[in-house]
Design a protein that fits this description.
The chain is mostly beta strands. The protein contains no helices and 21 strands.
Length: about 210
C-alpha cells in the first residue's frame, strides 16, 4: 500500500450559518455541500457561495450530470438543481447509518458509516446491487478514472483512501493532518478532491495524486 501525507491546496469557509459540512459533490462548475438544512453551491474559483436550496441535507451528496442526490436521515432524495424541487425519493441502504454518496456507472454508491461498507444501489428503487467491505469507518465516497476512493474519520485520525472495488483492499492512503477530518468527498475529474470538513464548517481541497499507467 502506498501511503503519503495529504496535500491540502485550498480551504473554503467556514460559512455563515453552517456549523457542519456533510456531503460534497461537483457539477462541473460548482461545488455543492450539505449543511444540515440546505444544499449550498460554491464557486471554487472565487470561494463565494452563489446559491442555496432549502432541503434536509444530513450526509452524502451526489450529482449524475442532471440531478442532485442528497441523503436525509434514512432516505435519498433526487433534486432538480434548477428548481430545487424533490423529484423522487428512495430508501437509503444503511437505514439512517449512511454517510457518503457518489454517482458512477449509472448507479449510486452509498457509504455506510459505522457499518464500514459501501453499497452500490439502483438509483430508481434503492435496491442493493453489491456491497464492498471496508476496514475503517466510511465517510465520503467518490469514483474517478475508474478508481474508488473513500474518506475515513475515527477520533483525530482521518484519511482519503483508494480501495480495490472487488476486494476492499486498501491500495493507497492520503493521511490528513491530525484533527482535520474528512466528512464528504468528491473528485473533480482532474487532480482535486473536494473534502467536507465536518464540524470545522470548511470545505478543503486535497491534491489527487496521479497513478502511473
Amino acid at each position: 500500500m502506498k501511503r503519503t501525507a495529504a496535500e491540502i491546496i485550498r480551504e473554503y469557509g467556514p460559512f455563515p450559518g453552517a456549523d457542519q459540512v456533510h456531503g460534497v459533490t461537483f457539477d462541473g462548475r460548482h461545488v455543492w455541500f450539505a449543511t444540515g438544512d440546505r444544499l449550498n453551491a460554491l464557486d471554487p474559483e472565487s470561494g463565494e457561495t452563489v446559491r442555496s436550496i432549502d432541503v434536509a441535507a444530513h450526509a452524502g451528496t451526489a450529482f449524475d450530470g442532471e440531478y442532485l442526490y442528497q441523503i436525509a436521515e434514512d432516505r435519498i432524495r433526487k433534486i432538480d438543481p434548477k428548481t430545487g424541487q424533490i423529484v423522487a425519493t428512495i430508501p437509503a441502504p444503511g437505514k439512517g447509518g449512511d454517510s457518503g454518496l457518489a454517482w458512477a456507472e449509472g448507479t449510486l454508491w452509498v457509504g455506510q458509516h459505522r457499518g464500514r461498507k459501501i453499497h452500490q444501489i439502483d438509483p430508481e428503487t434503492g435496491a442493493i446491487l453489491r456491497t464492498i467491505e471496508s476496514n475503517r469507518v466510511v465517510t465520503g465516497v467518490t469514483w474517478v478514472d475508474g478508481d474508488l476512493w473513500h474518506g475515513t474519520w475515527e477520533g483525530d485520525e482521518s484519511d482519503v483512501r483508494r480501495i480495490d472495488p472487488q476486494t476492499g483492499e486498501v491500495l493507497e492512503r492520503l493521511d490528513m493532518p491530525v484533527g482535520m477530518g474528512v466528512s464528504g468527498l468528491e473528485a473533480d475529474g482532474g487532480d482535486r478532491f473536494f473534502c467536507g470538513g465536518g464540524g470545522s464548517g470548511k470545505v478543503r481541497v486535497v491534491r489527487r495524486p496521479r497513478r502511473n499507467a
